[in-house]
Write a structure and sequence with these properties.
Elements lengths: L12 H4 L2 E5 L2 E6 L3 H6 L14 E7 L5 E9 L3 E6 L4 H10 L7 E4 L5 E6 L3 H8 L13 E6 L2 E8 L6 E6 L1 H13 L7 H11 L19 H4 L10 H10 L4 E8 L9 E5 L2 E11 L6 E8 L8 E3 L2 E7 L9
Antiparallel strand pairs: 1-7, 2-5, 2-6, 3-4, 4-5, 7-10, 8-9, 9-10, 11-14, 11-16, 12-13, 12-15, 13-14, 15-16
């Protein structure tokens, strides 16, 4: 289905101080003595190398190496928390269960049981420090996470970087997240809009599910350094991923695209190079304070440096291609 374009206001507290906003995330829990080993067989990252309190991005791939989802995996004492774009909880759980035979692992779609919000911006750490007890040590490494108490409720805090607005996810039971939201509002922390968060995500080049079309390969999406290990053991789809790495390049790449218009187009919409369709714009938003539009889309490599791209009636140009090599260990 088409996505509505974001429309970010000029005065965005995410850029100047700190703000909080609600997040829509799918959550799958993998628990049990075989949870780490089992999930490691189906993702591109080296989950086994992640310690408790740490995390990694990863692609979940099918047997042909095509991307099912880009996920964030957090290692806990109980196993793994797998966070994905909304609507993917059932699909991920069912995908893992399809291969589940005798392993001691329980797979649960916990989306309705775990809600999330984000505190982000240059002053996010200061805001978070004011919410937790004085002895609490907040995570500072990307995807590091710890248990906290905020507004009398237990929650988990995750340090997030390079996925959009940098700051902290706060995740917990719905009642806890509601109470923490009220505490943030009472403390005078402004609430950001979904359009602001979407604009930050697009500007960071982080693909949501809508930006990952069918039959996409991991290296096309520019998250190799964060989400792919080329030294771990075998996993579903590894042969295709390794073959593409040996070739040294992907034929298509996710790109951040500037549009010469102040009206972000409804997506998906074709990206053209002259008369030829060379890609699809899948997300778009207005940038602030300039008021021009940017978007994300997968573009054929041969067109990445073209000076004649258009989206609809608007001239367009690639302004950034997320880096794709620099692999995980």
């Amino acid at each position: 289905m088409p996505t509505d374009p974001g429309h970010a206001p000029a005065a965005c507290p995410l850029r100047t101080r700190a703000a909080w906003g609600t997040l829509d995330q799918a959550t799958v829990l993998a628990t049990g003595s075989d949870a780490i080993r089992f999930v490691d067989n189906f993702v591109t990252a080296s989950v086994g190398a992640v310690g408790v309190g740490g995390g990694t991005e990863a692609f979940v791939t099918d047997a042909r190496g095509w991307v099912i989802a880009l996920v964030t995996i957090l290692r806990t004492d109980a196993g793994l928390t797998i966070v994905a774009s909304p609507g993917l909880g059932d699909r991920l759980r069912d995908h893992f269960e399809h291969y589940h035979i005798r392993e001691a692992v329980d797979l649960t779609d916990a989306t309705s049981d775990i809600h999330s919000l984000i505190v982000a911006g240059p002053e996010a750490a200061t805001v978070m420090a004011s919410l937790v007890p004085p002895a609490t040590t907040l995570p500072t490494a990307g995807l590091g996470h710890t248990a906290v108490v905020i507004a009398g409720h237990a929650a988990s805090v995750v340090c997030v970087m390079d996925q959009g607005a940098d700051g902290f996810w706060i995740r917990g039971e719905p009642a806890a997240i509601d109470a923490i939201s009220r505490a943030l509002a009472a403390a005078g922390v402004p609430q950001t809009t979904q359009a602001d968060l979407e604009a930050a995500r697009i500007a960071a080049g982080y693909p949501a599910a809508i930006d990952i079309p069918e039959k996409s390969l991991p290296q096309e999406l520019g998250r190799d350094a964060r989400a792919i290990s080329f030294t771990k053991g075998c996993y579903l789809g590894q042969e295709t991923v390794a073959r593409l790495d040996a070739l040294g390049h992907a034929n298509r790449r996710l790109a951040i695209i500037a549009l010469a218009t102040d009206h972000p187009p409804v997506c998906p919409t074709p990206i053209r190079d002259g008369e030829h369709e060379v890609g699809t714009l899948t997300s778009s938003c207005e940038t602030a304070p300039s008021g021009t539009a940017i978007g994300l889309g997968i573009v054929h490599a041969k067109a990445l440096e073209s000076t004649s791209l258009t989206v609809g009636d608007a001239p367009a140009r690639v302004i950034a291609v997320p880096p794709s090599r620099n692999h995980q260990p």
